[in-house]
Amino acid sequence: MSASLAPECNEVKERYDSCFLKWYSEKYLRGKGTTDECESLFKDYRKCLTGALKERGIDKMLEDAREDHRENDAVNLRRPYYNYQPQHPSQLSFIEVTSPTSPWIPRKRFMHPFSILTLAIFVAGYITARWDLVTRLYELAIFAWDHGVVARTLKGFAILSSSSFYS
């Protein structure tokens, strides 16, 4: 489970996530569950998150979350990493010496492709990143629903569709 965008809502979110995961695995997958078992916890979490959104705004909360988790930030992960090693002129070939390039060349990191540990770390990181993404999208969906974004978007789409249909 990941942290909420609003740190003050983490405890409520943990209780809701635990309830939801228990309900989903023990009841829903077996066809025995009703849909209102975790509803009160969800309403508590939504109320806490809505209050934090009104107080700080979504942009500030997203920026704070990015700063707190820079190692998982997509923008930060896309930056190239170079481990520069000096290359002495005696090691350079004739073409490299006469070319206008720098004597510093990037050295790429190499990871053995069959490393089980590497695969396990990748899978664990991938699952964590996906769960964080799902949680963030879920919180943004709550925000959009509470502020009428969905209804306004559907009305606008309907108006545009009907006006282009009759054109």
Topology (SSEs and partners):
Blueprint: H1 10-26, H2 39-56, H3 58-68, H4 74-77, E1 83-86, H5 94-98, E2 104-107, H6 116-146, H7 149-165
Antiparallel strand pairs: 1-2
Description:
The chain has 7 helices and 2 strands, in the order H-H-H-H-E-H-E-H-H. The chain starts with 9 loop residues before the first helix and ends with a helix. It has one domain. About 5% of the residues have low confidence. By secondary structure, the protein is mainly alpha-helical. It is 62% helix and 5% strand. 9% of the residues are buried. A two-stranded antiparallel ribbon has the order 1-2. It is globular, with a radius of gyration of 25 Å.
Strand content: under 5%
The average pLDDT is 69
Shape: globular
The total domain count is 1
InterPro entries: MDM35_apoptosis
Organism: Monilinia fructigena
GO molecular function: phosphatidic acid transfer activity
Keywords: Disulfide bond
